[in-house]
Amino acid sequence: MPGSICDVLPAAAALLGVASAGDGLGVADWVGQVDQVDRVAVVLVDGMGWHLLPELAGDAPLLASVATGGAGRLDQLVCTFPSTTPTSLVSLGTGAPPGEHGILGFTLNIPGTDRVLNHIRWRDDPPHTQWQPLPTWFERLSWAGVSTRAVLPEWFIGSGLTEAAYRGAQFVPTRGGEDYAQRIVEELRAAPGLVYGYAADLDTAAHVFGIGSDQWHAAATGVDLLLTRLVQALPQSAALLVTADHGGLNVPANARVDLDTDPRLMAGVRVVAGEPRVRYLHTEPGATADVLATWAEVLGGWAEVRSRAEAVATGMFGPMNPRHLPRIGDVVITCTHPAAVLATGHEPPETARLIGFHGGATAAEMAIPLIVFSG
Known about the structure:
It holds the Pfam family Phosphodiest. The chain folds into two domains: 5-96 and 134-249 and 362-374, Alkaline Phosphatase, subunit A, CATH 3.40.720; 253-354, 2-Layer Sandwich (Gyrase A, domain 2). Helices cover 33% and strands 23% of the residues. The chain has helices spanning 8-15, 27-31, 53-56, 61-67, 85-94, 98-101, 128-131, 137-143, 160-166, 180-190, 201-209, 214-232, 263-266, 288-299, 308-313, 350-353, 363-366, and strands at 3-4, 39-45, 73-78, 107-109, 116-118, 148-153, 170-174, 193-199, 238-243, 249-250, 256-258, 269-275, 278-283, 303-307, 331-335, 340-342, 356-357, 367-374. Strand 4 and strand 5 form a beta hairpin. Helix 5 runs parallel beside helix 9 (160-166), helix 10 runs parallel beside helix 12 and helix 11 packs antiparallel against helix 12 (214-232). 51% of the residues are buried.
């Protein structure tokens, strides 16, 4: 079985000598001379799925070299389910699966209300320590006396998601147009410890223009330049771990269902959450069985339609804290084909115009790389 995104920060902590951390990925075995490593950079490239690496390689000389064994070490990991950014970032930060940390999707119904929380737009309601109660590895490192810094765009600072995933880190804000690679290098050189960075452009291009588009390939070039500069500037006592939060796939126009334009699909549904590849349907009292039957009939072979209990029983969310159960819909729709369930009456209009998607449990969405470079 491949390792998980949950294992990345514990491995980094182990490199930095934190006794409670376990290196289940064997990173230290490859880095060697671990006693000389006093600083580690972890960079997450949003949307850089394992299955996309061959297509990326044509625009990314460093990643091409990694793929052929010429640079670094490449391993395959999996992200957590749903394969979506908020879930993965908090799984990375806490080292725990979604059933434990509670960030179980891109959007979630707040139990006891009809409100839907968009984790990207989340600020302070609900409070991040209540909605995501687990300690992060940034906190654990700080408690062990290790400096942790997260170099992030300034508009990320103070958001609920940033706090839920990275709390405990010292936040280093960056502005648009700033030399992001240089900021990470400066932090890495300034003091021992962990430095975290995040790159969004590849995922944005996949969503808006599609995987394989000219814009996506241009973003791949940008990612490769960022990583190349980090590798070239890596101090001798440092290691660089590069991973991703999910992969992705393109969804054609004829494989999209809009629940807000089909009265059959909204019958008995009280709240719609999740995202186009994984929908959570919270039903009216007594309507769950009818909703299950209707959705299974309408979607045919495009998706798995399960009750909450059935979905949890698969283990896809990992061990489940009972307090988080109500955040999952009474009915869970997981697309298995390159398809999407739109909700044009519940979500911003730009969602329906996207080309690239993720969130499901297919290998194209779940498989991610771990690339390790040593100074």
